[in-house]
């Protein structure tokens, strides 16, 4: 759990942590000495607990979306290759199920933002809403997600991939990526732990 308490932990790291935990358990239970010392019933109980916690924590695809949008990771290295029949079914994109999961999360985020713009037009909003109408923004999201999914320019740049927030911020001014970049930076700016607050309060306490 210490890895999730790091000050620079981002939303994709949460999903990676669970993947690593699951892979570690699987490798552990496949070791011959473990197979002989732990019954299959206990192994199944442990995995059931792990899967139950996973289901409760990841009750939507938000963290999976962050994982997919992190330029550090390549989909081909992690996603299960679909069958030939499902390869581009109904989406025109590889890994169609994953594509729809990410698309639905981003559409839900955009819907919430657009609703806020409509409900509070006098408040200050993202600069994109001053140059594009709501329909143009929604259409741009679908187009840009498709380009990103196929690793097309400008999404194929490899600069600053170790910092996803910085990487997406670099695409915020490009008309071919600005809507998706807006949503991605929202995702990676989500605070996933309380370490910055703890550090700040520790300094305040020390000064007092």
UniProtKB/TrEMBL annotation:
InterPro entries: RNaseH-like_sf. It comes from the Eukaryota. This is Uncharacterized protein.
